[in-house]
Automatic annotation (TrEMBL):
Superkingdom per UniProt: Bacteria
Protein source organism: Klenkia brasiliensis
EAL domain ranges (all copies): 23-277
Name of the molecule in the record: Diguanylate cyclase (GGDEF) domain-containing protein
Length: 277
């Protein structure tokens, strides 16, 4: 006991220093990737209507193929980009790319298509965000009502009034707002009434538990009821089985997304899959 407090060294848990270095290296490599241009791309996953499973639109999902590590998942590099501030430029690139693809007919080239783009709370905290969205729409010519911006409940951690005002400004352009991963955050169902949103995306975890009996069915039913009373559309995320599809349709859920209907894929693959339908 006498020795404690003297000659103490800060010790890292095994692997901790490596993890920090790893993040620093990834942050540097991401900057290089943004300059290089050919490592970053968008994949698109279909959003379908229920019960029929017809394609309604697509969600853009960012992909990074690192020159030596291979694919790095967005859940790993997006938080790094948020910390370094790179998310501003990266998010603007995603927005421009996605609306340009959608304006060009996205999957089948028959005309402008609906597209959903994920937006980080850090992007939304920036004063210039509304201008970035307006500029992307203007450059592409995509009608604003075909664009959905997906935000998570984490945006509520910031200045709620400022965030709501900015979301409303984007909505005033005609863009629709979705709350992503709904049910996983700290906000209550009633919080939804305060947010200027149009769409609720039910998190995959609840969809996974559907039809197993238990609280997931009750929870999904109450989200649907609340959404109906607020005239919001509902998209169920992560639908992987026909049983889940049927359960959601029976509960009255109008839209779904998941591996059952299509995995995220590059544009040429998504286009081929649709043409085969
Ligand atoms: P998200 O927006 O909730 O996207 C859904 C995630 O679930 C995607 O993972 C998608 O590939 C995956 N997914 C879709 N259907 C299924 C399914 O049936 N089963 C399973 N197990 N997974 C499914 P991904 O592409 O790895 O993206 C993860 C998260 O990274 C996204 O979650 C989103 O929060 C973030 N992200 C992706 N692209 C962007 C972006 O351009 N900007 C920002 N800020 N975040 C992004
Ligand atoms: Mg999303
Ligand atoms: Mg989601
Ligand atoms: Mg999610």
């Amino acid at each position: 006991a006498k020795a404690t407090g003297r000659n103490r060294v800060v010790t890292f848990a095994p692997g901790m220093a490596e993890a920090v270095l790893d993040r620093v290296e990834l942050a540097e490599d991401l900057t290089a990737a943004m300059a290089a241009g050919d490592q970053l791309s968008l994949h698109y996953q279909p959003v379908v209507t229920l019960p029929d499973g017809r394609v309604h639109g697509h969600e853009a999902l960012l992909r990074w193929r690192h020159p030596t590590r291979g694919p790095v998942p967005p859940l790993k590099f997006v938080p790094i980009a948020e910390q370094t501030g790179a998310i501003g430029a990266l998010g603007a690139w995603v927005l421009h790319r996605a609306v340009a693809d959608a304006a060009a007919g996205l999957a089948d080239g028959s005309g402008p298509s609906r597209v959903a783009v994920n937006v980080s709370a850090v992007q939304l905290a920036d004063e210039g965000f509304v201008d970035v969205v307006a500029a992307a729409l203007a450059a592409s010519g995509l009608p604003a009502h075909l664009l959905v911006l997906e935000v998570t409940e984490s945006v509520l951690a910031d200045d709620v009034d400022a965030v709501c005002a900015r979301l409303q400004a984007v909505r005033d352009l005609g863009v629709r707002i979705a709350i992503d991963d709904f049910g996983t955050g700290y906000s209550s169902l009633s919080y939804l009434r305060r947010l200027p949103v149009d769409i609720v995306k039910i998190d995959r975890s609840f969809v996974t538990d559907l039809a197993r009996g238990g609280s997931a069915t009750t929870l999904v039913a109450s989200i649907l009821e609340l959404a109906r009373s607020l005239s919001l559309d509902v998209v169920a995320e992560g639908v992987e089985t026909p049983v889940q599809q049927v359960a959601l349709a029976e509960l009255g859920c109008s839209f779904a997304q998941g591996y059952l209907f299509g995995r995220p894929a590059p544009l040429d693959t998504a286009a081929r899959a649709l043409q085969l339908d």
